[in-house]
Amino acid sequence: MADFTVSLSDEKAGAPWGENARLSFTETGAVIHLAQDSDSERAIAQAARKLDGLNLPAVTLTGDWQKEQQWAFALSFTRARHPGAITWADNDDQAQLAQEYAALVFTRQLVNDTPEDLSPETLAQRAAQWVKSLGQDKVSFTMTVGEALKDAGWVGIYNVGRGSERPPAMLELDYNPTGNADAPVDAVLVGKGITFDSGGYSIKSSEGMLDMKCDMGGAATVTGALGLAITQGINKRIKLILCCAENLISGHAYKLGDVLTYKNGVTVEVVNTDAEGRLVLADGLMAATETGAPLIIDAATLTGAAMVALGSDYHAVFSKDDSAREQMLNAAKLENERFWPLPLEAFHADRCPSAFADTANSRPMKGGGGGGASNAAGFLSRFFNPQGKGWVHLDLAAAYHGGATAEMPVGATAKGIRAIARMLHDFKA
User: Fold this and answer.
1) DSSP string for residues in 339-384
2) Which alpha helices (DSSP H) does 145-303 contain, by range?
3) Residue 10, SS3?
4) Cα separations in angstroms, 401 against 77, 80, 112, 258
5) Structural domain boundaries of the chain?
6) Cα 76 from Cα 349, distance rounded (Å)
């Protein structure tokens, strides 16, 4: 069977296809018409969705394609199950696109996997094995699992995950291309890895629970970003910390009213077991801080409030460090990924008061009340240095689509992997 080719044209489609048609077809494939569109990438995305609906096993991009046009096509053409293969246009962008696409496919497949097949330990193992396959002997890792988490003082991950028969896990991975075991750590990536989120005793509705296999999107995104940076040849020492657990209900599950005492002495009253992501990330941030790295990025599908604020098109960016925040936003702009800043001030750390502990993990109202995304970031700030120097928190509102749109397939997006990888390369303290 001949290759199904896809090309671009600045001309309108011929009369048989309709005056404003984005697509026309030839004997060998399809043509995407950009004549009416100032935003070519959006037009390409919409056309790619239509081509994806044909269940094509493979396409070849031919003719004059810019890199970002090809990437827009790939984002929209790569469906959740059995995505069609893409042969990139014959230009200088092929190698770079291949690297980025491999990271995209890994990230999406990991997020789209079933919660039954992706336990906390499995998530940690698959992430470690994939990064190891890229970094070879430059990569080492350890896993702390189950009761060992409690013994090590990682109370957030342990308590969120103790209701499941499948134990929680913390992955600590070290990519060290320097060959020096004492080399300083340049950056740490921390990811929320809740492989399924029932809400715990603050149980979600069936509709709200349906897509909760995606609640490990932060872990997948930072893993994909690190893998991409490695294939791009980064020569910095970078650590990856994944905080993995299933948030389920059982006689062993943590409960509303419990008070957790973290390693740094902060006590937290649990007022909502569905605000579990910040509880596990707190452990990850403390572990990251111990490395002394000048850059720490955490990523999580953390709050519905971020989605209310930004929809499913942007990731929310929080930082007390103006320089780090601007560098993150600039990295996203250069990689054509949509990131948007939301407020984080010192007072946000006190927006979830408790009569029984230093803070509560949320506010006892639906969605955590107004400013929920900033309040969650404020909670996390308690587990980092008070000035927040070098810390960037990403609330991944655009990580997953519960239904297909005119521009994106259903499921994981992997948006953010390119921006985070660039941030690792370019960051200056």
Assistant:
1) EEE----GGGGGSS--SSSSEESS-SSGGGSTTHHHHHHHHHHTTS
2) 147-152, 155-161, 206-209, 217-231, 277-289
3) coil
4) 14, 11, 11, 33
5) 5-91, 106-426
6) 38
Q: CA-to-CA distance for 359 and 382, rounded, in angstroms?
A: 10
Name the pairing type of β-strands 5-9 and 58-61. parallel
Q: CATH class for domain 106-426?
A: alpha beta
Give the residue among 386, 402, 297 at the shortest CA–CA distance from 347: 386
How far does CA 424 lie from the centroid of its chain?
15
CA dihedral 357, 264, 275, 341 (to 10 degrees): 120
Interatomic CA distance for residues 336 and 44, integer angstroms: 15
403 phi and psi angles, rounded to 5 deg: -145, 155
Say how far apart CA 96 and CA 289 lie, in whole Å: 32
Alpha carbon distance 355, 183 (integer Å): 44
**β pairing state of 58-61 and 85-87:** parallel
pLDDT of residue 1: 52
Q: Measured between alpha carbons, how far is 416 from 404 in angstroms, rounded to an integer?
A: 19
Going by C-alpha positions, the residue among 44, 37, 110, 100 that lies closest to residue 77 is 44
| CA gap 74, 53 in Å, rounded | 14
Kindly calculate the radius of gyration of the chain based on its CA atoms and give it in whole angstroms. Answer: 22
pLDDT in tens, 233-285: 999 999 999 999 999 999 999 999 999 999 999 999 999 999 999 999 999 99
List, by residue number, the catalytic residues: 204, 278
DSSP-based three-state secondary structure for 128? helix
In terms of pLDDT, which residue wins out, 2 or 202?
Answer: 202
Statement: residue 363 has pLDDT above 60: yes
Q: What is the largest CA-CA distance in the chain?
A: 72
Residue pair 331/424 in contact by the 8 Å Cβ criterion: no
> Contact, 62 vs 86, CB < 8 A?
no
d(CA 70, CA 49): 13
